[in-house]
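Supplementary Methods. Inverse-folding protocol.

Structures were first reduced to a discrete structure-token string of length 319. This string, shown here, constituted the complete conditioning input.
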């Protein structure tokens, strides 16, 4: 049971219960990515049967979900050189060659992305018990920057389509808290296993609804998502990472009064779990429903932006 009036107590008790601090040594920077071993990658690669690939990324453009909260904006794409320039002969290249160049400006977590281990703290403490001020400064995350896992995130992916299994017409309503029981029901319905080193994707159907009805409050507003009570499941299964099709991974409004993203406060700094948000799982989910196979090879390397606490990603699932 959740005591809505005591988020502090629930966070403290849960964090103590599921802490992975010291599990991989005092100097660890990869958290649950330590579960994603070479054997797990071999297992994942063996799942490729048809060679059908799915991009799980939203488009990075001005039509994204962001509304400016905490200076998060949609990507701004600007051309530096164009075909018009080439045709006008003003680029200065010899023998008729021309080209185009462009630049993009955007927050690293404005669309499909990973949360790094330096993204969330608990009372000023970062992953593995380090003081947050010694980890992330104005120069970036000098300890657990997203570049530390740039060569790691590829292995066995599993889709849990909770929207189809539990929801109505394939979608969960905003504010729906996904519990361990819902996750277990989806695992059973898909006849799949979830365990150590897996990259778990949870589809709620909210992104499909936003695409149909408009973005509305998709970025930061009410949403289906994981219940705070799933922290024990996330710890016990020893998964390497989890990603959803929602802005914030956990259910919104949160399950406590006067709280903000309490599950983040446990799973990132204490479990060391990597979280993906705003992933587009629609085409993959449709294919999984068609062939009944909910496991696949998944590669989702972040951009190795030195010292970043998150990164855009174009995840590719191959079946």
């Amino acid at each position: 049971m959740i005591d809505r009036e005591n988020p502090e107590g629930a966070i403290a008790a849960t964090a103590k219960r599921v802490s992975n601090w010291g599990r991989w040594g005092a100097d660890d920077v990869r958290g649950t990515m330590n579960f994603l071993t070479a054997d797990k990658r071999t297992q994942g690669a063996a799942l490729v049967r048809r060679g059908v690939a799915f991009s799980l990324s939203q488009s990075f453009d001005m039509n994204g979900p962001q509304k400016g909260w905490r200076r998060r904006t949609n990507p701004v794409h600007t051309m530096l050189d164009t075909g018009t320039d080439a045709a006008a002969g003003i680029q200065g290249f010899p023998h008729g060659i021309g080209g185009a160049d462009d630049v993009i400006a955007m927050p690293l977590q404005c669309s499909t992305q990973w949360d790094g281990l330096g993204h969330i703290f608990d009372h000023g403490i970062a992953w593995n018990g380090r003081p947050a001020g010694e980890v992330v400064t104005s120069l970036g995350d000098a300890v657990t920057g997203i570049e530390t896992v740039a060569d790691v995130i590829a292995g066995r992916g599993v889709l849990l389509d909770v929207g189809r299994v539990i929801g109505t017409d394939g979608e969960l309503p905003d504010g729906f808290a996904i519990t361990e029981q819902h996750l277990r029901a989806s695992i059973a319905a898909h006849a799949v296993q979830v365990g150590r080193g897996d990259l778990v994707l949870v589809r709620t159907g909210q992104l499909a609804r936003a695409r149909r009805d408009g973005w509305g409050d998709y970025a930061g507003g009410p949403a289906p998502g994981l219940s705070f009570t799933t922290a024990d499941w996330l710890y016990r299964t020893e998964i390497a990472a989890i990603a959803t099709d929602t802005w914030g991974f956990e259910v919104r409004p949160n399950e406590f009064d006067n709280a903000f993203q309490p599950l983040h406060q446990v799973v990132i700094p204490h479990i060391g779990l990597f979280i993906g948000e705003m992933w587009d799982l629609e085409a993959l989910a449709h294919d999984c429903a068609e062939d009944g196979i909910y496991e696949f090879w998944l590669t989702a390397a972040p951009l190795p932006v030195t010292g970043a606490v998150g990164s855009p990603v174009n995840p590719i699932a191959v079946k």
